[in-house]
Amino acid sequence: MAVPNSEELARCVEQIDRDRLTKTLCELIEHPSVNPFGEAPRGAEEGERRVAAYLRDRLTALGWTCDVDEYAPGRHNALARLPGASGGRSLMFAGHMDTVETTGYPQALTGVVRDGRVHGRGACDMKAALACYLEVAEVLAERSISLAGDLLIAGVGDEEYRQEGAKALGASGPRADAVIIGEPTELTLCLATKGLAAYDLRVAGVATHGSVPQHGANAILTAARLLGGFEDYQRTLDRRRHPLLGPATVNVGVIEGGTKPNIVPSECRVQFSRRLLPGESPADVPVELAAVLERGTWSIGEAWWTVDAYELPHGHWLAEALRTAARLSGVPDREPHGFPASSDAAPGSGGCARRSHRAA
Ligand SMILES: [Zn+2]
């Protein structure tokens, strides 16, 4: 088996079996893997066990090796490997197996093809990518293609919450020279991803009876005034632009406070998140906000949920390789873009440690 050149590899695109690919995606949807968001999995629908086993079964049948690792109770990663023939660069296709919940989504766990699209929980984000990775393995096997370097397929858990699967996978160091993460990007090449940091803003007031509000301090009204300051903060962020990702952003997502309509509330809690650009630190955000918000009886705690931002180093070989692959595959938009959400690409997520690179 000779190692093919890139043009020969491009011909593999013509061998993609769309019916098989669709069937694979429907089967992945029908193997539920709802993220329990920090809790222990409660029942068969939660956790990634079934999808990890599915990946293992499909890939070992094609001659790959595959390890399924229970990195936390009921939470799994799958890592499969097709050894390279001549010590070339290794490449990993990585994708998260978990999905968000199915509440309020009829037929969430039934892969349905409608108007040429597959519907079901996780169809797009991101079981479609897992299905594509399996189709790559099928085509390589059918054509008896041997690659120069190792090809790995990683199914990881917990991307939708704390990226614990990627952290576990990366804990013992990089396993590939580069990683492609197939998050949904409308088929554009994304060479950078924003990070995330979430915070609590607590506003203190003085409780009193609602008939004499002048004797208290209404924490909700104070919070309402502060929220206007978030718009000022966004305007300062708009001036801080990354060439691929655009500006950093801030979002107020939750506001809680008060107990009864006839009580002046003594506390109001605001949860907000900040999308970070590469190079920004979660520790800087409370300082920046303090400079914009009016002074008062409020405080911002440390970030309680963080995901690092990431960008592929300028001039990295993977960017050019992906552009070539996009050209050979007929992808119309081959310009690099930024991914506005966070993902397993971040080095702090440990997805594939510091040598790893995301480009999807
Ligand atoms: Zn995703």
From TrEMBL:
Domain Peptidase M20 dimerisation: 192-294
Cofactor(s) demanded: Zn(2+)
Keyword Hydrolase: yes
Region: Disordered, residue numbers: 332-360
Keywords: Hydrolase, Metal-binding, Zinc
Signal peptide (from-to): none
Transmembrane segments: none
Claim: Glycosyltransferase is one of the keywords in the record: no
Protein name per the record: Acetylornithine deacetylase
Organism this protein belongs to: Microbispora siamensis
Encoding gene, per UniProt annotation: argE_2
